[in-house]
Amino acid sequence: MKKIVIAGRNDAGKSTILGEIYKGLKNKGYQPLAVGSGVQDEKPYLHKDIDVNYLTIAVPEPGWDVVEDIERVIRNACNQLQEKNMLIKHARKALEELNKVRSVLELGHLSQSDIPKISKAPNVVLVEAVGINDGYKSVECRKLADVLVTVIPAGIKGEIIMEAGNVLLDEADILVVTKIDETPRDVTSTTIKLLQRIYRYKPIIPVVATQGVHLNLVIDEILKFMIDPLILVDKAENYEAKKH
Ligand SMILES: Nc1nc2c(ncn2[C@@H]2O[C@H](COP(=O)(O)OP(=O)(O)OP(=O)(O)O)[C@@H](O)[C@H]2O)c(=O)[nH]1
Ligand SMILES: [Mg+2]
Prior knowledge:
Elements: E1 2-8, H1 14-27, E2 32-36, H2 42-47, E3 55-57, H3 66-104, E4 124-128, H4 139-144, E5 147-153, H5 158-162, H6 167-170, E6 174-178, H7 185-198, E7 204-206, H8 215-226, H9 229-243
Parallel strand pairs: 1-4, 1-5, 2-3, 2-4, 5-6, 6-7
């Protein structure tokens, strides 16, 4: 399963972006699993219509390997979902049996509608990295991520961007600049120009995360990473085969 990691400083807008990416990928037919980085993430995610079945929280203890811990949390969440599905299947079967008996006794059918539906297994993971005070230096996020989305508030100080060793900026696959609605235009433009100068080949996408503005562009970039080039080869072969 591919992992998309959303990283950035405290209060940058990570949770908000994560909620929007969840929605966007769901609209494209994916079922994401959201992994928050602490209990404080649970509530905002639920506000963003993330189904509780697909929401889990990782709280790595100090000194623990963050990557291993998150892998463990993802496995747990998938197992729990499977177990729940099993119980639902059992419940349906049991009710069917009960209804057979009731029908013999002329008691009428009990409805299956109270039993929840089977949840489909997630096929992509969204991880919010812990808000990191020291900026953009966490190596773990890159290790964990198949797609690394780094969130930068438009009003950030230029010195922070230019600091040496900003792994999360240097290694990002996609740079998302947030809060452009509440940042003066000239400040936003200075931030973006600076990023463009340092990261000439990275997608840099300014957004208003709280209103979903330009999040479609972020989703488009993420989708490019989701395609396995070998599948495109197969598709091309099928296309050729159909022509003949
Ligand atoms: N105006 C505006 N506010 C935003 C935007 N993105 C996020 N916010 C607000 O900024 C605050 C922080 O957003 P979060 O998404 O919780 O940020 P975070 O990076 O997850 O924060 P921590 O997990 O606490 O480090 C919230 O009050 C959001 O509503 C934006 O694009 N524009
Ligand atoms: Mg958050």
